[in-house]
Predict the 3D structure of the following.
Amino acid sequence: MKSKMLGVITLVIIFIVAASFKFFQEPKPWPVPDKYNKMPNPVKNEAASISAGKAIWAKHCQSCHGKTGKGDGTKAAELDTHPGDFTQASTQSETDGALFYKTSEGRKDMPSFKKKIPDEEDIWNVINYIRTFKK
Amino acid sequence: MKTHIIINYRIIITAFIVLCLLFITPGFGQTDQQQNAQSQNDEQPTASPKSSARKPVKNTFESIWILDNQTVMVPIKKTFELDFMHRFGTIDNGYQDFFGLFAGTNIRFGFNYVPIDKLLVGVSFTEYNLTWEGYAKYALLKQTQGGSIPVSVSYYVNAAVDTKKQGDYPHSSDRWMFFHQLLIARKISDKFSFQVAPSLTHVNSVQGFYTGDTTADGKSVLEKEMHHDHFAIAFSGKVKLSNTLGLLLNYDQPITKHNVNNPNPNLSAGLEINTSSHTFQILLGNYHYITPSRNNYYNHNNYKDGQWLIGFNLTRLWNF
């Protein structure tokens, strides 16, 4: 009887520990329309733009994507899909236009920022800031 | 009964000088970013400096609230905002009510929406006297990056009705108070924004008292304790400490002098934390009522007597 009880308690503990871990889904491919892939960044990548982008990043992006873009923000663990490591080539090899499309349109966990960041110039500023994460 | 409104002219002159400084100081309104953007435009003849210069300055304030006052800010069209505000009791009882945190509190829920560009409308419900408010704010002018418009100006109007069941009001119209405020702000640098906000409060019902004098026909002279109209002015500032943290400062000065029960000024300071959808402000100040007309007209907490209270404002934004 005692060993049966111990077995049940052990199973319950294993279940609680297992349930407390977050298992991210593998990110599915995110196709970008050609129009956006080829879209040039109209905002020059320089100090003023990066500084403006950094301020917007801190307010809107950092909680999920992390301070340095590694996808380790305080809310990242609550997401179904890992927000990605922006320091790596998987993000840095994308065109500015593709990043603009993904930021403004969003998908599932990633919200659309068209309304939260209504001035397109600000989204381009964020993209210029994302380029500073490149390793 | 003839109404005498005595106004403290020194305060008006001070406010006028501050306003003049805001308008005329050269380069005063250009943020670092704007100055950089301008120099960038100078270097790039292909860019469009005119369109950039005419763009409105961003983030003069991060929220529609700066502690107990409105800011010039009107969120973008189709934004819905929920406000949750709390004012605790005064801290002067110390440990007995844990610095006011366990004393009588005042709570307000506000629901705001921006149906068209530049116009915010809202309704709120405040615990004190079960006060309902309807209000609107319209952005009349927006400061531009190039400085062609040196300040942002918004007009705020608020009607409040006391719905508590009590016998003090012979007529239902006596329950109403009205508040008008002109909000004039300037983003002085990337780190500092300042706002001057003159206001007029109108209270429908005021108390009277007998002076002890009699008229020629032997009737007792009745005077009003306070005038129906009350002018005041608020000075508010935001210092940006980081991209998500700001220091807020505010001072409200009553202008109209009443026969008795003159309201006290309000001095407040707080910290503001911003995220994508939330703004959180924690503050120490003197205003308890949250409703702007009541704050300006009835505040009897005096900072000189240590009657400070802790409060917070929490806002949540949704974009549709």
In short: Chain A has one domain: 32-133. The first helix of chain A runs from residue 2 to 20. The domain at 32-133 of chain A is CATH 1.10.760.10 (Cytochrome Bc1 Complex; Chain D, domain 2).
